């Protein structure tokens, strides 16, 4: 495993182009484009204000930089560095900005979610979409980029509009039977749209592409409901994580519950391997400690850590949430399927230091990773069943069916890994610190 | 004649000594015979007067009365006075007896009536006791039921309380969620109002617009099309096409899966048939006739089914599926029955635990080994194998050692010695320890002798001092102390004796 040197970034704005060749980083008001392999700076752009959000277009030719405070969006071209484009939303303000799947339209959501403006880079047309809903996930594009689903709310009722991304033609518009629609998500095959209610009511609605209601699923009443949703890459399963610390899997044929994964604090299942991170603090000799020694041995204060497999039964540490607060820290907040459909990684908020990996063939837990600090982020390798996670310390943790490994980022002065994402080829991971970034190139053979 | 009177007397005695348990109505009877026998003259007649008198006097003597006769010249004359006295005494006795009898009878009456009363009360109390016991049981039963009721109610109450608590928690969380949402909306509303105010007061309206150097072509290179009704219908058709494609793909996948599963089922069925059919080929024994019939039947039916199944491709899928699954089920049931039969026969034959599935294909005879014996054999063989392996390994090692140094005589000598080496080492160590101990002993011995010599010297010194001290005493003795001479003498004698004793010291060593 090789680590690159450290580069600056601000706001955790760092994205790899969809074709995997370039790495774009924002440093304050500058946009830096590097080559992914050599990490040489290829282009440097200067924006008018501190960049709040940055996105590559789908064909990797353009980069969008949004500055919400000023209501501006600037678009840069990679092929033609002189080309410029500036979109000013004016007094109406800007809250979010994103590309359309064809890479030629920009959708700006104005302040207070008054409307969504669709700007075209091909012609002078501007479209407006009224009454978008301000919710967890109000807008989603299908995987093939043909359709967009938008959650709307008017007259105290929730609606979903399906647009054709080609020419922004409204294909379908229908009301949903929800109290407060929280999000919409297309299935990877683009034929089913999942819509779910806010946490006050457990309700999952499944609509076909043509607007027919296929099924409704509600696991229980009254208690807080859905917290996170994930489709499996083959569209076979829909995983729903809820506040009752369970993940329910629906199958795509009957849309009924196939099984539910319970995150029990005591693990007794012999098929689940518990990887417990154990830290070894080195003993510092206090007598003969010279400055030279400290300077030379930078690893003196390093905390070594490795994984141990404790014998069953194992108690997972639980943090009881504050019952009086809204959005309590309990329930499944993150679910992700591996790319081969075999594994599902989940995180239960009241066990913040653990990540659970479930085997979808056996429909049972296959591994539980217990870290020494709350897990901040985890992501699956886009090519193989390998999970990378970070807990905000200087280490990168990797899990694969072969085993678990913790790697220290060899950066002087420490590098707190706060977030990470994989390169689309699965050969490297980009680690993001507070204001730094570092690339980690994976070894070609599997680590143990 | 006296015998009959004796009998009457006996009757009297018998009737007077009645058992106390007799009913009181009969107790009046004994009074009557006394009156009866007064007028009885059968006891004494003119002939037996003297015998009667003798008898009576004997009886009276026996009863403690003085003799009624007095001797007058050898003749026994009746003393009338004493006889009358005796008669009077008897009458008195009789009266007393009667009185006592009356008393006793009264007493007996009283007692029996008391007894009767007691019995009545006893029976009444028993009845009462029974009743109260029943009542007690009833009350106990009722209490138990009530307790069970209260327990169940407690349980219900607890459950209800728990549910109430849960619902309260849910309500609380929902309320906090609502409040949070409400606050968020209020904040947003506030911001909106502010912005509205700002916009209304702000004169310069910043227009929105896009400033682009030049328009970019579409990503797919095509030109965009006008929006007409045709495009709308095209969109619709595109959408439906996408859905249909998805359905087609899905259906194809399901068909493939279905075909594979059917194949698997067929294979299972054939394998099951195959397992059961070899019975036909093994020898003809009585016990095998039964399974033979079995398998014949099975095979016949299987062949029928197979033939019929070949034509099912023409039949509807539903029908084919049902047929296949039914036939599989039938086969499975037959297999189960067959296994049960094998188990039973295994028990009968060997009086041991039932046969294992391992030897299913063979005949039902001595070829079947019980599972436990089989496992034991395996264990034993494994152990043997391990031992042999170890043995071979050690032999190999030794052989290698032998082969590696074949030429050197010295080394050979060393090699031959190497077995002795260990012993030599051990012996050396033992010698060492022995030498050490010997040294220690010597040292101790020396110290002891030195100590003894010193002790002897000291003793000698001590005795000399003592002797001088005594001499002093003796010399400084006054005239008045002559009386103490004796004691001194004895002392000196004792000292001399001591000296004698000490002069020949015996060392303890």
From TrEMBL, chain A:
Gene Ontology CC entries for this record: microtubule organizing center; MWP complex
For this protein, the record's Pfam families field holds: WD40
> What InterPro entries is this protein classified in?
Centrosome-WD_assoc (IPR052778), WD40/YVTN_repeat-like_dom_sf (IPR015943), WD40_repeat_dom_sf (IPR036322), WD40_rpt (IPR001680)
TM ranges: none
GO biological process, alphabetically ordered: lens development in camera-type eye; retina layer formation
**This protein's name:** Anaphase-promoting complex subunit 4 WD40 domain-containing protein
Lineage of source species:
Eukaryota, Metazoa, Chordata, Craniata, Vertebrata
Q: Which gene encodes it?
A: WRAP73
